[in-house]
Amino acid sequence: MKLKNYVPMIAMAILGTSCANRADNNGIGIRMENLNDSVSPGEDFYQYACGGWIKNNPLKPEYSRFGSFDAVAEANREQIKELILGLAKEKHEKGSVEQKIGDLYALMMDSTRQNKDGYAPIKADLEQIEQTATREDLLRLLAENEEKGGSMLFGGYIGADMMDAKNNIVEIGQSGLSMGQKEYYLSDEESYKKIRDAFRQHVVKMFQLIGDDKQLATAKMEAVMEVETAMAKVSKSRVELRDPASNYHKFTYDALKKEFAGYDWDQYCHINYIDNLKEIVVGQPEAIKGAIAILNGTDLQKLKYWAEWNLLDGNASVLGDKIYAQNFDFYNRTMTGAKEQQPRWKRAVSTVGSVLGEAVGQMYVKKYFPAENKARMEELVKNLQKALAERIDAQEWMSDSTKMYAKEKLASFYVKIGYPNKWKDYSKLTIDPARNLYENMQAVREWAKKKEVEEKYGKPVDPDEWYMTPQTVNAYYNPTTNEICFPAGILQYPFFDMEADDAFNYGAIGVVIGHEMTHGFDDQGRQFDKTGNFRDWWAAGDGDKFKERAQVMVDFFNKIEVLPGLHANGELTLGENIADHGGLKIAYTAFKNAQKKALEAGQDTLKTVNGLTPDQRFFLAYAGVWAQNITEEAMRDLTARDPHSLGEWRVNGALPHIQAWYDAFGIKKGDKLYIPAEKRVNIW
């Protein structure tokens, strides 16, 4: 069952992985060569703080966006590669985790075998689709092909019921768009039309690579566009998907079959290993009804062409270099501006990490995550929780009852640091080197689906489940478990440095911690209570006051012109922008508390080093996390679909709302980034 969980588990950013690396600048963590002091902080703080890094780290051709953490990620991938290679070189007992990691990596690296096979591994499945005589048989095949890398016009998963967060429930929702979002199919804006035309050409070329002549390939492409454009018309936008209430509709199974007639739901459940379904959540009812109408009203041959496309598109990475290269050409080169494919070993490491992530993570933390890092992080989290409680108390616009419950929710955060308390069981997964890569990935999908049903269907939510692997450089907040999670991968430079002072660590990892905590109180997270249930716990009127303050953030970001004629999307990025804003305020409060405590203990924490005060180093550490180079194509793509603002605006868009930043750098009226106090965002 393939579907994004629309309950907003919110991550810090979309990042890769990182390695242990330190900055040795008199213990302050700030690398002076990363700055550009020819630029005034008040004119462009992003360039002031990151200009040196941007100049010294030109965009690598395999990337469409390359940031400061990605630079460190290169070394970390090397570390993971060495761990995997160490296993791949040795013989291991059949069925052991070591055998599975080593053999999957070897299968990914065997370009000779993949190129010899080409598209042959999916040929029988394509022929089965083409030979299907009835609509009913085709719909069955579509559902079955999810395990083969295909997809439906809707998808499903099993996860926490946001109205009963201690228990899991089956949910279905919109899917079926190869380009990911409806604007690529429907918008008349020139940039979208350009991508749409390129997609048409891409689909034709992909079908030609599996032996179709241009006339047939073009006919198949037109069918794909007809089906997916129809689906786009009934799909919600990324902004609309951010509203939890409007994306939750619970039905009994009998009511589902009545309300969404025209589809064999018994067959769908059987194929997905679900028996005796009693209740189900429909995320986007109009999209599901639209999908059923398309499946029943579209010419059967066109549906078969679309089914072939989904199988081909979903397996492009395992069908040899020619198909992979064409897939890269559209999804990476055209859509995001990347110039070159990643080396095969990096793709192999990523595949192993996606399939056996916690097994790799267990090796990773054993070698690269010191116990003292976890202990220091636990201390920082506690300090940030205290600071957020102070920030809550300081809000004059909140009633006492709302403050009281907000602090109860804060105290109830389930904190996960480094790695899981219990590791994922891979014993039922089979990786067989005698089978080709396509067959092994089918086995992976079948295993994953069965495991999801076995562990979650009709079961309570497991609070110890991790939604990221330990080696991931990222962090998240999950509202239905009210948890904040900081994998081992993020607990290193430039986010965290055991040898740096408090100014650096509170400005970097401290803001990350505060960011994830704030997600529990952003425009989405605030709608969930301390037990993870979707419930309005705010006192009358307080919610409206929050929305008024949040609208200031929306309006501010909507006015940002990221490229000529292209503005940021304040509605789409609201949650992340609020989290950055809150993270900065909370981390700065915690930093000041730490300074006070140190002074009381007789320690001098107010030193100016390399001409930088502690407060200046705090804000420079924050900005340094977002240093990056990025293509124009990626800027357009991310602005359209990513709930995170672009790196430049996570700095220049966030800091002008923080008074301490003005004080630290002497920002004054007349400076480009200056915002009058009465027009600044003021939430947490």
3D architecture notes:
A four-stranded mixed sheet has the order 1-8-9-7, covered by helices on one side. A hairpin with a 2-residue loop joins strand 10 and strand 11 (566-567). The radius of gyration is 26 Å and the shape is globular. 51% of the residues lie in helices and 8% in strands. By secondary structure, the protein is an alpha+beta fold. The protein starts with 9 loop residues before the first strand and ends in a 19-residue tail after the last helix. It has helices spanning 45-56, 68-88, 97-109, 111-117, 120-130, 135-144, 183-186, 190-208, 214-234, 253-259, 265-271, 285-297, 300-314, 321-336, 344-355, 357-368, 371-394, 400-411, 437-456, 502-507, 509-519, 542-558, 574-600, 614-624, 632-641, 647-652, 659-665; strands spanning 10-11, 65-67, 154-161, 164-174, 250-252, 279-282, 414-418, 476-478, 483-487, 561-563, 566-567, 628-630.
Question: What is the fold's blueprint, element by element?
Answer:
Layout lengths: L9 E2 L33 H12 L8 E3 H21 L8 H13 L1 H7 L2 H11 L4 H10 L9 E8 L2 E11 L8 H4 L3 H19 L5 H21 L15 E3 H7 L5 H7 L7 E4 L2 H13 L2 H15 L6 H16 L7 H12 L1 H12 L2 H24 L5 H12 L2 E5 L18 H20 L19 E3 L4 E5 L14 H6 L1 H11 L22 H17 L2 E3 L2 E2 L6 H27 L13 H11 L3 E3 L1 H10 L5 H6 L6 H7 L19
Parallel strand pairs: 4-6, 7-9
Antiparallel strand pairs: 1-8, 2-12, 3-4, 5-6, 8-9, 10-11
Helix pairs in contact: 2-3, 3-15, 5-13, 8-9, 8-14, 9-12, 9-13, 15-16, 17-18, 17-21, 17-23, 21-23
